[in-house]
Design goal:
Elements (H helix, E strand, L loop, with lengths): L2 E5 H7 L8 E7 L3 E10 L2 E10 L14 E7 L14
Antiparallel strand pairs: 1-5, 2-3, 3-4, 4-5
Length: 89
């Protein structure tokens, strides 16, 4: 699984992440934070990265506040078949 590390300032200031992300999903929550996974383009490839932000206006947590470098995993868009339970018609 190819990964790269990018400085948080580069992600925020040069790439305008997480706001310019192609996809931004909430993947988990905790008492004080909302955890996200984003997909973004960089140098002709696509990467996934995670960040968290404060859950309320009282939690002053910004994306990548506690990290200097962010590990980003290269991803590709692929069709995936999924089994799902649905009501009987």
């Amino acid at each position: 699984m190819p990964t790269i590390k990018l400085h948080k300032d580069y992600l925020k200031n040069e790439l305008d992440l997480p706001y310019s992300a192609i996809k931004d999903d909430i993947v988990d929550t905790s008492r004080w934070s909302i955890h996200h996974e984003i997909i973004f383009a960089y140098n002709g490839k696509f990467y996934s990265a995670c960040y968290s932000e404060g859950a309320t206006e009282m939690q002053c947590e910004s994306p990548w506040e506690y990290e200097s470098e962010v590990e980003c995993t290269e991803v590709e868009l692929k069709e995936v078949k999924v089994m799902k339970w649905v009501p009987v018609e």
